[in-house]
From TrEMBL:
InterPro entries named among the record's database cross-references: NUDIX_hydrolase-like_dom_sf, NUDIX_hydrolase_CS, NUDIX_hydrolase_dom
Pfam family, one: NUDIX
Hydrolase found in the keyword field: yes
Keywords: Hydrolase
Name this protein carries in UniProt: NUDIX domain-containing protein
Source species of the chain: Microbacterium rhizomatis
């Protein structure tokens, strides 16, 4: 989060769902630590090297999305990169291994679910963590 905005991944509408946003990230590979995974995912998806990675929380999300049930464990990190510090508010980055984009979205829009932000409860968690002071950069 930076100045009332969150850097999020935007998923386009399909026949199964409308446009939605998620925290940037991906999966942890077998034998990989969560902090190594977040560094690898940012490099693979955005070609961005992270200068700082700090784990802040772990949460669990069990959900139904109409067509499927899911269960995920979400590791929340504070990350810092000169690339994000220099990213203009109106910039959109193409994700290299998906048909999604990354951009800054105003927190008020996310609160209004425009677009919906997943996993459920993540926005409240990152706002709480950001308000607890001292975090150096975007929280993911």
């Amino acid at each position: 989060m930076r100045e009332g905005r969150a850097l999020v991944e935007i998923y386009p509408a399909t026949e199964r769902h409308g446009v939605f946003a998620r925290a940037i990230g991906g999966g942890i590979e077998f034998g990989e630590s969560a902090s190594d995974a977040v560094r690898r995912e940012f490099e693979e998806e955005l070609d961005v090297e992270l200068a700082e990675v700090r784990q802040l929380a772990v949460t669990e999300n069990i959900f139904e999305a109409g067509w499927a049930r899911g269960h995920e464990v979400v590791h929340v990190f504070s990350v810092r990169s000169p690339a994000f510090d220099a990213l203009p508010w109106d910039a959109e980055l193409s994700v290299l291994d998906a048909k999604t984009t990354v951009k800054w979205v105003d927190l008020n829009a996310l609160r209004a679910e425009d677009p919906p932000f997943y996993p459920v409860g993540m926005l409240e968690l990152i706002e709480q963590l950001d308000d607890s002071a001292g975090h150096p950069g975007p929280l993911w």
